């Protein structure tokens, strides 16, 4: 009897905890939900929903992002919400738990399709995995707008347009700026020197393009100065050259977790011939800084370069631990994906938008054209 | 004749006072740890460096606290799958309290441990009073804790205060940087002392105290223990509370070393800890637990985690290597037990 009572009590507390959990979730997302619903109810007249071919009032747009783990996505969300408010459309901004959860993202894309939105924004973690959903969208006549890393390798015509940083160009920018700093070291080196490249994964296009952009550009810059380059470390990029002057060493962790990236960074920092390490996104940049905690080589014997911002990276750039970093314009990405989606849904022609990127150092990070893109 | 001599030799090995004191499985695990360390060191010169040793300690803290805790749950014949996400949840929530709501760090650390304890209590009640299978109960709280952490932080990552900030003092519990005369700072892995103290306390609790004996007893035969008048539910709940509490402490350790916590993460951490426990010789079917063995298993896991990238193995090969070591270590234990029976 006593036991039964207890288990009933337990059930009750668990259910109430669940309700409380949902309750506390509401204010967390209320800012977005509220603004979404507000914008629609203001403009939609419920009686004539059937005849709204021109009005965007009840237009709903599903945006499937890569999740919210990094503050970067909050800036994208902010841009998207701003644009949605201005255009009077509803947006539903979703994202998987982590950037490794490819299956979960596919599920979200399918859910989006089931809701038959006017358009879908998609930042694919893995294009192959999303292909089925993309084809379904095509058949249903729902335009897809790619953003962030977009949906590379998607079938011709499946993606109406992309609102994205040209990640390959961003990687090249990082290589250009980095080479200016390390050129002397490479020129004066008597033995092999090593450049580390930390990529969070080898599947998402934004990460791999930034890696490839950096690697290719660095290789051509070094080779232009008459040195040889060998690329090692990960099968995707490997291009081994024996006895090369410069080794580009690529590290990819098994999983996107802080401790694995930190260990990768330590491994690179520990190699005596390493002169420079590049982290190709916020996560890798933070792993680089954390990994340096036991070694203190960044800013002294090793040049550190990162991507995006966040508290750790910003303070490391400020203190000189990192020589600099490339920042994207996440707010513009968010704005553009919504604007393009609305246009595409109305049947207007749309084309790709490069939202741009900039190199920042301790000297210019407070500048008016840089500071708004740097988030905590 | 020859069979007799090998038997004698075996008995001599098993009856050797050193082997008896350490326990065969723990001895095998310890040997494996030393061999892995030497092999890695032979392949990679940078693995032999002091800073790498510090990194191995760094990785051992969070796995270690989780593993010590989950040893109790496993000893009862159960399992706690929620520890990884509870670690992330408690550390995310308190990290956000510290940075966004300016709650003093000391209070945050206490809350961090408390959150772990509450999840442990929940697990314990579900298993002992509601009669849920431990696997399912803790799988549920794994999802709960994953969700709660994300909800509280609005699914944003949290970066705990840096060592350079005043609020970063808690990092000194796990690592003190001593600045030498030449201006170079040397990290001292002080967290190992804490890990060792906690391990000794918990080993005493598990094997030398009344609650511990009840936990072991109910793990080997819950019905018999119940029939002999022991309040089984109470002690079973205690085991899960310890497991959760330790996950909370592990949350502090993780934050102190790796700074940034990602919401939605943590699933998979528990497997490193459980692997460590099993390698150390604790029986998955319950009724026998060893904290000393767990500690050795944890160091095998952290040496593998830290060392595999150093010997130039690519990501996927690292996972294969870890899997092989786990299977081999547990097989040794199983084979050993069969022989003795």
UniProtKB/TrEMBL annotation, chain A:
Q: Which Pfam families match?
A: Peripla_BP_4
Chief place of localization = other
Q: Which InterPro entries match?
A: Peripla_BP_I (IPR028082), SBP_2_dom (IPR025997)
Residues in Periplasmic binding protein domain copies = 61-348
Show which residues constitute the signal peptide.
1-20
Cellular component annotations (GO), alphabetically ordered: cell envelope
Q: Which CDD domains match?
A: PBP1_ABC_sugar_binding-like
Keywords, A to Z? Answer: Signal
State the source organism's domain of life: Bacteria
Region Disordered, residue ranges: 24-52
Low complexity bias located where? 29-42
Q: Where are the transmembrane segments?
A: none
Q: Which GO terms describe its molecular function?
A: carbohydrate binding
Where in or outside the cell is it found?
A: Cell envelope
Q: Which family does it belong to?
A: Belongs to the bacterial solute-binding protein 2 family.
What protein name applies here? Substrate-binding domain-containing protein
Automatic annotation (TrEMBL), chain B:
> Where in the cell?
Cell membrane
Q: What is its main location?
A: membrane
For this UniProt record, give its keywords in alphabetical order, as a comma-separated list: Cell membrane, Membrane, Transmembrane, Transmembrane helix
GO MF term (any one): transmembrane transporter activity
Transmembrane intervals: 27-47, 59-89, 101-121, 188-206, 238-261, 273-304
Tell me the membrane topology, using the record's own terms: Multi-pass membrane protein
- Return the GO cellular component terms, semicolon-separated: plasma membrane
Please give the name of this protein: ABC transporter permease
Organism source for this protein? Answer: Candidatus Galacturonatibacter soehngenii
């Amino acid at each position: 009897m006593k036991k039964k009572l207890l288990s009933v009590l337990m059930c009750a507390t668990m259910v109430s905890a669940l309700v409380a959990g949902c309750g506390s979730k509401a204010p967390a997302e209320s800012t977005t939900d509220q603004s979404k619903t507000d914008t629609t109810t203001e403009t939609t007249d419920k009686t004539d929903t059937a005849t709204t071919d021109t009005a965007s009032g009840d237009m709903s747009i599903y945006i499937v992002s890569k999740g919210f783990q990094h503050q970067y996505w909050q800036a994208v969300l902010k841009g998207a919400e701003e644009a949605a408010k201005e255009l009077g459309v509803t947006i539903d901004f979703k994202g998987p738990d982590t950037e490794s959860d490819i299956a979960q993202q596919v599920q979200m894309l399918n859910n989006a399709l089931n809701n038959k939105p006017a358009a879908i924004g998609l930042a694919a973690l893995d294009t192959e995995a999303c292909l089925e959903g993309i084809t379904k969208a095509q058949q249903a006549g729902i335009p897809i707008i790619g953003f962030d890393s977009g949906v590379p390798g998607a079938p011709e015509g499946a993606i109406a347009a992309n609102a994205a940083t040209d990640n390959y160009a961003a990687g090249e920018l990082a290589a250009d700026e980095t080479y200016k700093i390390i050129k002397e070291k490479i020129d004066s080196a008597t033995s092999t020197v090593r450049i580390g490249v930390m990529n969070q994964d080898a599947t998402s296009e934004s990460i791999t393009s930034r890696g490839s952009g950096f690697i290719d550009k660095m290789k051509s810059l070094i080779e232009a100065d008459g040195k040889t380059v060998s690329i090692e470390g990960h099968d995707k990029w490997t291009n081994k050259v024996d006895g090369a002057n410069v080794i580009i060493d690529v590290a990819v962790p098994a999983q996107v977790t802080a401790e694995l990236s930190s260990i990768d960074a330590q491994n690179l920092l520990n190699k005596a011939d390493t002169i420079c390490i590049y982290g190709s996104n916020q996560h890798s940049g933070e792993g680089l800084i954390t990994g340096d905690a036991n070694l203190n080589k960044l800013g002294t014997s090793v040049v550190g370069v990162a991507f995006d911002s966040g508290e750790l990276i910003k303070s490391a750039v400020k203190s000189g631990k990192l020589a600099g970093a490339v920042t994207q314009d996440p707010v513009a990405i968010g704005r553009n994906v919504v604007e393009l989606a609305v246009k595409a849904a109305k049947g207007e022609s749309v084309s790709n938008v490069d939202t741009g990127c900039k190199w920042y150092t301790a000297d210019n990070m407070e500048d008016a054209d840089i500071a708004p893109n740097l988030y905590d | 004749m020859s069979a007799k001599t090998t038997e004698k030799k075996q008995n001599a090995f098993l009856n050797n006072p050193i082997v008896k004191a350490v326990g065969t499985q723990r001895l095998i695990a310890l040997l494996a740890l030393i061999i892995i360390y030497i092999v890695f060191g032979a392949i990679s010169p940078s693995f032999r460096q002091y800073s790498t040793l510090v990194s191995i300690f760094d990785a051992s803290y969070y796995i270690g606290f989780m593993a010590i805790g989950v040893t109790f749950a496993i000893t009862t014949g159960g399992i706690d799958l929620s520890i990884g996400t509870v670690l992330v949840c408690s550390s995310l929530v308190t990290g956000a309290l510290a940075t966004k709501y300016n709650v003093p760090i000391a209070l945050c650390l206490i809350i961090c441990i408390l959150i772990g304890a509450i999840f442990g209590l929940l697990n314990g009640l579900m298993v002992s009073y509601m009669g849920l299978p431990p696997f399912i109960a803790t799988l549920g709280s794994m999802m709960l804790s994953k969700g709660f952490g994300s909800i509280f932080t609005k699914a944003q990552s949290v970066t705990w205060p840096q060592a350079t900030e005043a609020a970063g003092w808690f990092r000194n519990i796990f690592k003190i940087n001593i600045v030498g005369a030449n201006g170079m700072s040397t990290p001292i892995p002080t967290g190992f002392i804490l890990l060792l103290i906690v391990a000794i306390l918990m080993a005493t609790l598990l094997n030398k105290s009344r609650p511990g004996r009840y936990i072991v007893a109910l793990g080997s035969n819950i019905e018999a223990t119940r029939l002999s008048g022991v309040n089984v539910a109470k002690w079973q709940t205690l085991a899960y509370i310890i497991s959760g509490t330790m996950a909370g402490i592990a949350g502090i350790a993780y934050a102190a070393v790796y700074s940034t916590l990602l919401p939605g993460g943590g699933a998979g951490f528990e497997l490193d800890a459980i692997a460590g426990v099993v390698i150390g010789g604790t029986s998955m079917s319950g009724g026998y637990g060893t904290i000393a063995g767990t500690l050795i298993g944890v160091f095998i896991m952290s040496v593998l985690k830290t060392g595999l990238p150093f010997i130039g193995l690519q990501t996927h090969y690292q996972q294969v290597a870890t899997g092989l070591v786990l299977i081999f270590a547990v097989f040794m234990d199983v084979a050993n037990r069969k022989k003795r029976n």
